[in-house]
Amino acid sequence: MNNMRLPRLDYLEPGETGELLELLGEMGDDCTILAGGTDVVPMLKRRNSTATHLVNIKKILRLKEISYDDENGIRIGPAVTLREIINNPVISDKYPLLAKAAGSVGFNQLRNMATLGGNICLDNKCIYFNQSAFWWKSRRDCFKRGGDICYVVKGGNGCHALSAADTVPALISLGAELIIEQRGRERRTLLEVFYSGDGGNPHWLDRNEVVTGILIPSPDRGWKEGFLKKSYRGSVDFAFATLSLRLRINGGVLNDARIALNSVSTKPIRARKTELYLRGKTLSDPTLREAVRLLLKESMPLSVIGASALVRSNTIEAIFIDLMEMIKN
Asked: Is 9 exposed, middle or buried (0-12, 13-18, 19+ CB in 10 A)?
């Protein structure tokens, strides 16, 4: 019987990025990255992860740094904790949306350990997959475990595990990019295209790649913004909807919009059609009703992780209207 203890692991602790990339190049799928450990350790205990090597990146100083300049914006290392995000004076001043989103994750003790890179690379969640190996002995393996069935969407032909990271909508609406490295190569990608939509393999990240930085452009003037998360027990539970909203309003007319959601589908949603519709409009009641209709059509909520698609749809509508009212007043 699985007693939920950690499996036997080889523990590795590189001191430099180059050493980390060498290890990833050699071991690939046999290793998992440890930054905060708030998600990785429970996954190992449940045998949701079958890695045999645990690579701690917390001793690599470059991955724990925050640097800012007005021309290039801010660079945040993936091993920076959420508590450091919340307490950083530059982030609080210039990127308060990110600080608010980080403050919505878990509880104080978790935020003291969890990292921004870990939240960005959080594995998708499912009430079936996230059970112990002992529990799975009585059931056929699902797609996420290498099987051929989805228990969330009956008859589904793929994994529908939920994307659940709370900081991601804020980062997407801020235009964040990721720096991703492997041996001999570095690439950059917008965060909004980092997610595949496949619940089983939710990130466009090769087995020997690692996120080494999060870049956010310098903030422009004139934006009004807000973030809301809704769950049954506040920040303690995974959300059944998170929404980040940024608006640029001039003379009562909306010139630009950035709308991003998470915890509603298999990947975060950038609501581009809704954004396009809102540009050039005044925020009247008919405009908001049509914006809600488009937003729900784009988000296509799932019934998973404790909330039905109907509950998620109603929640998205409510928090969108609430944020609009908060921002325009």
From this structure: middle
Whether pTM > 0.85 for this model: the answer is: yes
* Helix, strand, coil content of the chain in percent (nearest 5): 35, 25, 40
**3-class SS of residue 104:** coil
| Superfamily of the domain at 223-328 | CO dehydrogenase flavoprotein, C-terminal domain (3.30.390.50)
Span 88-106, pLDDT tens digits: 999 999 999 999 999 999 8
- What distance in Å separates the CA atoms of residue 209 and residue 25, rounded to the nearest whole number? 8
Of residues 196, 197, 179, the one with CA closest to residue 188: 179
| b/e burial code for range 109-138 (CB count within 10 A of at least 16 → b) | ebbebbbbbbbbbbbbbbebbbeebeebee
Q: Fold for domain 63-121+163-216?
A: 3.30.465
Asked if the domains 63-121+163-216 and 223-328 are classified in one and the same CATH topology, the answer is: no
CA distances from 297 to 202, 229, 269, 292, 300 (A): 22, 20, 11, 9, 6
Q: What is the pLDDT of residues 281-306, one digit of tens each?
A: 998 999 999 999 999 999 989 888 77
Measured between alpha carbons, how far is 42 from 80 in angstroms, rounded to an integer? Answer: 20
User: What sign has the CA pseudo-torsion 102, 106, 112, 116?
Assistant: negative
Q: Please give the C-alpha separations between residue 249 and each of 100, 224, 316, in angstroms, as whole numbers.
A: 22, 8, 22
Q: How many angstroms separate the CA atoms of 241 and 74, rounded? A: 27
